[in-house]
Amino acid sequence: MTAWMEAAFTKTYPGMSIRGDLNWTDRPHRVTALFGPSGCGKTTVLRCLAGLERLDAGSIQAFGQTWSDASQRIHVEPQRRQVGFLFQDYMLFPHLTVRDNVVFGITAQPDQRSRVNQLLERFHLTGLDRRYPRELSGGQQQRVALARVLAVQPRFLCLDEPLSALDGPTRTDLRIALREWLHALQLPSLIVSHDAIDVQALADDLIVMSAGQMLQTGTVDEVLHRPVNLTVARIVGFENLLPVNVVRRDAASLSVEHLGWRFTGLDQLNSSTAATGIACIRAEDVRLRETPADSATVSATILELIPEGTMLRVRLSLSSGQQLQALWPRSTLVTSTIQPTQTIAIELPANAAVIVQGS
Amino acid sequence: MDLLALRLTLQVACCTTAVLLVIGLPLAHWLARSRRSWKWLVEAVVSLPLVLPPTVLGFYLLWTTSRRSSFGQVLESLTGETLPFTFLGVLVASVIYNLPFAVRPFVAAFSAVDRRLLEAAWCLGSSRWRTFWRVTLPLAWPGILSGMVLTFAHTIGEFGIVLMIGGNIPGVTRTLSIAIYEYVDSGNYTAAGQTSLVLLISAFVMLALVHALQKRMPQT
Questions:
Q1: Which of A113, A225, B72, B90 is the most exposed place for a label (fewest CB within 10 A)?
Q2: Among 2.40.50.100, 3.10.20.310, 2.30.42.10, 1.10.3720.10, what is the CATH number of A231-356?
């Protein structure tokens, strides 16, 4: 199957080179998230695709056209790409009303009025069409921005941190609404985000970026649960990184040990001979037991109990000096019985850890 | 009060503002958006009249456009007259001298328009020309207007450069500032006082206008 988007390019800034590598063939309506820490180059990739940046090397082919080619000095202007770009702060035109913002991209089309009315209705903006952006809430502004982008019937959507301008309950509501819209639109979409919750709620596929490089690509579940290396594990939120020795290799998993504590993990070492590695463990997978330690568990001293909303983060120290974190729903943990300085046994479910190479 | 001088002064101020709007807007737009490394050189040339004494600028203008210079001779063969001591000469001098008073506020106004708004317009299919008229200009308008008012007010008060290039010919180059100078020189303090008061009041009105416009600068 031919790719509808094939991009391999470099954009260089002083002190940083950003490399984009995309090859999308099947199911073009999927939502892909570009995930990574702030300043890693996610937005630049989006801007290159939209034609807002010129490439320093490489090319972008999309929908059977060459959009950019650095070697041939080809650069199709953003006006001719039909990329719907939703900016981080929405970038509504402050001097135009809601209706005029939505109409802005529609030029000389006979059914303009009815289409704009449909969009205003779809995004619940009908009563707000004469207002100016400064008179709207964050959520309303986002809806206007989306309606404005969709008015020009884009072939591809780019969303730059679509929820970062919001917080609290509004963010949760908008996340749910955006998820519904993205699924209903059936448009290929690329979302930039540095929030794992947003990514899980909105995207089908995930690309992890760090320092200008795309480190791992796959479905959201695949990338979040099987990081290919230590950097990706850190970025996707594995809080516990424990040095381990490999004890036994099975087809599907590795048996490892850390100072006598044995557990199994998914093999991402990419080496059949490596004797050591790093076990990446999510805090929510660390289980606490108030019974004495055996071979499947290890004893740890509780350092601190930190409430996090409905969860409780427990900071622990192993006898090796290595620190671990556990995250448990407060309702399932009898907090009155565990206290700092107390010794407790901890265990891991089978294959909860991912074993990667040390850096 | 010399009404002929008042009319001439207003003519010079209106023409200077109009000419600077035409040449200043594209120049300012380029200065606000360009990333060229040699942009500072253009900025320095535009700002030169701010630090150069008007008489120096007037002298160079007189020297380059007089009948004795080759440039002046070419100019005379093309237009049929030399620039010094004509209305056109005063206008050219005034435009050059007021360049920073118009261009700098224009640049500030264009720079205050968030570039991402322009990018949003481009992604919606809007050409650069349409984006300029539909987004940049409406948002930069208060700043542009304030530049125009400053230019107008500053032209009314010009003295040194007008005297150097235009001299003191009633109805042709004798503006209000030169009239005041002549009133004082001849001991006519009443006329000097009346004319000065007119200029003082107009300067205050202009400044109030600039202040009001600056408060309306776009906040995006």
A1: A113
A2: 2.40.50.100
What is the domain extent for residue B62? 3-215
Cβ contacts of A84 on chain B, cutoff 8 Å: 123
What are the backbone dihedrals phi and psi of residue A86, each rounded to the nearest 5 degrees, phi first?
-100, 110
Chain B contact for A105 (CB, 8 A cutoff): yes
To the nearest whole Å, the CA of A127 is away from the closest chain B CA by: 23
Query: What is the full per-residue pLDDT of chain A (359 aa) written as tens digits?
Result: 577 899 999 999 998 999 999 998 866 788 999 999 988 999 999 999 999 999 999 999 999 999 999 999 999 999 999 999 999 989 999 999 999 999 999 876 667 778 888 889 888 888 999 999 999 988 899 899 999 999 988 999 999 998 887 777 778 888 888 888 888 888 899 999 988 889 999 999 999 999 999 999 999 999 999 999 999 999 999 999 999 999 998 887 899 998 888 899 999 988 888 889 999 999 999 988 877 767 778 889 999 999 988 888 999 999 888 999 999 887 776 555 778 888 888 888 888 899 999 87
Q: Is the CB of residue A204 less than 8 Å from the CB of residue A32?
A: yes
Is B123 within 8 Å of A83 when comparing Cβ atoms?
A: yes
Looking at beta carbons, which residues of chain A come within 8 Å of B117? 91, 93
Residue of A83, A100, A102, A104 to mutate, testing the B interface (most B Cβ within 10 Å of its Cβ): A104
ipTM above 0.90, yes or no: no
Rounded distance between C-alpha atoms, residue B8 and residue B4, angstroms: 6
CATH class of the domain at A5-228: alpha beta
Cβ partners under 8 Å of residue B156, min gap 6: B9, B10, B13, B175, B176, B177, B199, B202, B203
Contacts of B132 in chain A (CB under 8 A): none
Put simply, whether B37 touches A (Cβ < 8 Å) is no
Which residue of A81, A85, A107 is in closest CB contact with B120? Answer: A85
Find where tokens 């963010």 sit.
A171
